Amino acid sequence: MDSLQVPAPLKRTDGEDDQKSELSFIMKEKLHTMAKEVQRRTSAVRESLIKETPEDSFSTTSVGAPTEEHRPSLMSLIGLQKGPQGDAEDEPKQKCRLPQSLHPYGRFYMTWLFLVTSAFLYNAFCIPLRSSYPYQTKSNLICWLVIDYTCDAIYLIDMKARDEMLKHYLMSSVFKLDLIAMIPTDLIYIYSGPTPIWRLNKLSKIHSFWQLFDLLDNSFSSPSVIRVTRTLSYMIYIIHCNSCVYYLLSAWQAFGQIAYVENGKWYLNKWVYNNQGNAYIRCFYFTAAVATSTGNNPAPTNVIECDFVFLLKTCRPYVYMTCSWMMGVFVFALLLGQIRDIVSNANRTREEYRRQMDMALSECKRLGLPKELTNRVRDWFIYTWEQQKTLDEKKLIEKLPLKLQTDLALSVHYNTLSKVQLFQDCDRALLRDLVLKLRPGDVGKEMYIVNQGVLQVVGGENNETVFAELRQGSVFGEIRCVT
C-alpha cells in the first residue's frame, strides 16, 4: 500500500523577500504613472473647455495654470477677495462717493487724522506764540483769522458720525472734548479785541494727537522712532511754552532796562531777554539751555527785599527758574529712560540668540565633539538667525487664533507650492490644506521642496561626487504624496 507523502511546511526565502520588494517598487511606479495620467487628462479637459469659450478671457485666465500675473492671491484663497461686480458705468459713482466705513489703519483715515492733528498742533503752538510775542499785528490779523477758522472747520467736520455710530459717539468722552473745542469763545473778541488766549479751549482736541501716534505705533513693525518722536514733541512743546513765559517776564522787566539797587549800587537786569536779535530764537535757546543743563545758567539778579509787594514781584524770576529746572530734569530723564528701554528691547532678541548659541557651543566643547560637528552647530545658529531673526518662531504664532495661523501659513508657503509642477493644477482647497500641514522644523518623511538656496546630491568616497543640484522650486520624494 502506497504511503501518503505529507508536504513539508513552506519556508520564506530571500528570493521571496526580493520579489515582494520588487512588487512594492512596481506598485509605486504604477501609482506615480497614474498620477501623471490624471494630470494629463485634467490638462486635456481644461484645454477643451478653453477652446469652447475663446471669447471669455476672464474664464480662460481663471481656469488656466497660475502665472505671475494671474496667480491666485492670498485673499482669494481665504475667501475675502471679491470679484468685479457691477457695470463699468458705476465705477465713477463709487469713486466720487465717500466710503461707507473707514478702516482704522487705512490710508484715508490716517490721512484725515493727520490733517486733524495738524490743526490741533497749529492751535497748540500758535495760541501761546501770538499771546506773548508781538507776531500778531493789524496787518496780518486777517491771515491769522482765516487759518484759525479753517482749523475750526476741520474740527467741525471731524465731529461727523453715521447713524450706526452716533449713539456711541455721543456717550463717549471724545464727544465731550470735541464739544469743548467747538465752544465759540472767539465772541469775546467783541469786548477784548482779537486776543488769541481766548482760544485755549481748542487744545481739548489733544485726543486726536494721541490717537495718531497710537495708530502709528501699532502700524510700524519697529515703532521705536515713533515713540521717541512722541516724547521729543512733548519736550519741544514744553520748551516752546516756557519760552513764551520767559518773553513775557522779559517784557514785564522792560527787557532789562529797569535798574535795581544792590549794595548801594544801581544795576541793569541782564537775566532777561534784551530785545536784541530774533526774539523767539533767543528765548527758545535760553529756555532749552535751562531745561537741559541744570546749574550752568545765569541766575536771576533781583534782590529779595522785606516789602511784601516788592518780594512778590522780585521772586517771579526765581520761581520761573526753579520751575524750569525741575521741569527740564523731569522731561530729560523721561526721554533718556525711554531711549534706554527702546535700545534694550531692540537688542533683547539678539542677546537671547547669542546666549543660546554660546550655551550650545559650550556644551559641544564639554562633550568633546569633533570640530566639524561643532562648526555645523554654529552654522545652524547663524543661518537660522539670518533667515528668521528668531530661533523658535512657533512661540511667536502659537498664541494667535487658528484663522490668523492659517493666513500666515498661506502667505509663507503658497508661493513655494505653486512652483512645484505636481501642484500646478491642483484645487485651491487642496493647496490650503497642504500649507496648513507645513511647519518649520518638522521632519520631512514624505516630500521635500527646495524653497531657497541650492541643494547638492552627493555620494561616492567621502561624499565628493556631486550627482545633481536642486535649486529653488525643485522637488524630490513627491511620489510619497500618492502612495
Automatic annotation (TrEMBL):
Q: How does it sit in the membrane?
A: Multi-pass membrane protein
Instruction: Quote the biased-composition stretches of kind Basic and acidic residues, using this chain's numbering.
Output: 11-21
Q: Where is the Cyclic nucleotide-binding domain?
A: 438-483
**What are the GO cellular component annotations?**
intracellular cyclic nucleotide activated cation channel complex; plasma membrane
Species of the source: Nippostrongylus brasiliensis (Rat hookworm)
Asked whether the keyword Membrane is assigned, the reply is yes
Q: Indicate yes or no for the key word Ion transport.
A: yes
Question: What protein name is recorded for this chain?
Answer: Cyclic nucleotide-binding domain-containing protein
- Cellular compartments annotated: Membrane
| Membrane-spanning intervals of the chain | 109-129, 141-157, 169-192, 234-255, 318-337
Q: Name one Pfam family in it.
A: Ion_trans
What InterPro entries has UniProt attached to this entry? CNG_cation_channel (IPR050866), cNMP-bd_dom (IPR000595), cNMP-bd_dom_sf (IPR018490), Ion_trans_dom (IPR005821), RmlC-like_jellyroll (IPR014710)
Q: Which GO terms describe its molecular function?
A: cGMP binding; intracellularly cAMP-activated cation channel activity; intracellularly cGMP-activated cation channel activity; protein-containing complex binding
Q: Where is this region: Disordered?
A: 1-21, 42-69
Q: What is its main location?
A: membrane
